[in-house]
Amino acid sequence: MKNMEENSRRAFIRNVSLTGLGIGMMQSLPLSAIAEGSSMAGPAMHSLAGPDMPFIPKRLGSWWCTLEDLLWSQKKITDKIKRRAAAFAEADIDTAVSYGFHIRFDFANYFGQLHGYLADVASELHKYNIKFIEHYSCNHVERPRGEAEFKKLHRTQRHHTLLFHDPKAAAHAQYEGHLFHDICEVDLRDGSRGYALQYQMETFCHNNPGFLDMHRKYLQRLEKEVSFDGYQVDDMCNYAGLATCGCKYCRERFKKDYGHVIPPFGDKSFWGDTKKPMLQWGNYENPVFRDWLKMKDDSVADHVKMVKETIGKKPLMTCCSSTGPVTLNAISLNLERIAQHMDFFMLENVGTNIKSVDWIEKDAEALQQKDIAAKRGNVPTIALSYTIYEEGAYLGWGLARFWGVANWASTMQYRLIEDPVDSIEMEDAIRATNNWEIKYSPVDFMEGKDMVEVRLVNNSYNRANGWRGTDGKEHWQKVRSWSEQFVNNNIGYRFLRAEELADAAALKAEGTPLVLDSMGCVSDAQFNAIQQYLAAGGKAFLALPFGTHDEKGNKRSKPLSGQLHGKGLHMVETATSGPVVEALIKKGLFRPAIQQTAGDKGWAVRCRDHKGKMILHFMNTDMVAVPHETIRDMGNSPILLNIAANTRNNALVFEVDTRKVPLTALNILSPELKDRRVPVEIIRKSKNSATLKVNLDGVKVYAVAQ
User: Fold this and answer.
1) What InterPro entries does the database record attribute to this sequence (predicted)?
2) Is the model's pLDDT at 35 over the cut of 60?
């Protein structure tokens, strides 16, 4: 009875909190929080929260499914559903995401019992007011080719819940009258069915009307048979890569939309050096090749649009582990291209191995996705962190808090060759951290507004056109280097992307400087907007080259950099050349709002305003991974078992510009400190400055000053 009462209490609290999540999201900040040269969120944007957003996830967890679950509705399975739903509630998870029946059309012969199982899960979760998001990959079927591929699949992809067709049966496999063989992509090399070697999958073509019809009808069936609250339709890209697709539908579309014919495979003027790995194929000097990549992106975007139209107002998201590198062109993974149809934006964050503690390089991807979500209408951003053990789950949660996004915790033991004997369920891995958050620091990430001191430009035209500088580095490498230096110097930043860069009014709406590094591809509209911004007194740091090509990748007769001028324009070295940010600070060209003067430099600080009160998040950049003695992942990296820290002097001192960071009474809290609160000493030096003394003893991963 006591447990039932507690679960009912949590359900009531969760219901109340979800109802009011959007309130105050776009409220104006008090004037004290805004100063010249700083901002808290960028330009105002319409919010989709409220009536247009049915719910906003905060603490997500993977609802792992196994092959045994197809035995639904046996009592063993239904009892397991009930136990696990109760455990999710105890772990304060507000949103569950189905995980396991991934390569969905492999289960076409079993959709009846699969949907019955999922409907039962949804019903049980809804008793605790836990939302349930469907998660599956729509555009593949597992088809290992040969014994070696068969064994590799069973070693590395166990988390897909493997149940694929025998080769002879596969020739007849179908759904809604569409033979799978008939809707596959076509390999441009030999006319065979498209094959994703990294996942042992045959791939369906995003342009094939038979596939689109099949997927639409399946979604309609799902809507009727399972009460999902949202959808993650995964892998909206092309894992077979540049080898596909040569089907008649793709050839017709390329001719109709772009006026081109796909050249024969091996034509170096189009394909480049195909002796290189597939991700490096293609001659970006050829406009026909660039158009082909754009057509492939268009195909995926149209498919996503169809999915959104089919599910209606229910939120939609897809996988996106990366947004920046040129190599993503090869698999048509382009989040910016499909963003207009998405409601949640999800980033796969840290994995299960020891490399997870080196998180700074992920900061750029996290903030890039936040900006994409912001321009979509300030919709939720979600960081997905994989783990085997509790310490990894805590690390992922800490990063989500540092970034100001929702946390999706997920165990991943099923991707190892065998499950560790001491592995734990996902809800057990995240329970203690979630419970602590609810009790001591229930911070609503949606109402938080980042303190922004500089706008870092990531211009997607450079990626789309495969542009690289004479040093061989692409624009994204430069951007990521700036991001890492900002983190190391506790500088608040946000991303500014291609569309906003062409909007002079948006550029002039904020007093924070722009950073423009190695932007070879620049449109006339972007150049004019930047010039207007500079003419109005705006400040920018520019590292050449700039504007050597237009937005379509065509080379200009003269770089636009020669025409760019203004008192606020400062020429700087590229970020990959060394500590450029520190040089700017020493020269007095940039003054951070927070400057550390004592204590270990391993702690990064991020400031976020919550309804007029500043909260400071501390994340350790100098963690030490404690590896598992025997267990390794598929890349032969040891699994993360525990975390230590190199940080020793945790008595930190900061000089703070209180015009940008208005301070009120603060206490340090952390799950590592349990219920202890450590007061922060604030020494007022003048009207506009203060010294901040922070003691992080006993903390090795994350803390918050609130």
Assistant:
1) Class_I_gatase-like, TAT_signal
2) no
